[in-house]
Design brief:
60% of the residues lie in helices and 0% in strands. The chain contains four helices and no strands.
Length: 70
């Protein structure tokens, strides 16, 4: 797909990094996620579509979350 390439190496244990992604999700996708949900999404091994359906979010949000924690 034609998604923008995102480059980041955030840490799941850094409070500042977690706040950054939670704020990004709220502003850009109007999503109210928790740090636990972010951790589970990053660790999920499945298709973006499947992960998105499991968490009630869209595939672009899944892509953004996973790409920020490479």
């Amino acid at each position: 797909e034609n998604r923008p390439i995102l480059h980041a190496s955030l840490s799941l244990v850094d409070v500042t990094h977690m706040d950054e992604i939670l704020t990004k999700m709220e502003i850009e996708y109007n999503l109210d996620l928790t740090a636990t949900e972010i951790n589970k999404i990053v660790g999920a091994i499945s298709s973006y579509d499947s992960i998105a359906r499991n968490y009630g979010i869209n595939e672009d949000a899944v892509y953004t979350i996973k790409s920020m924690f490479r």
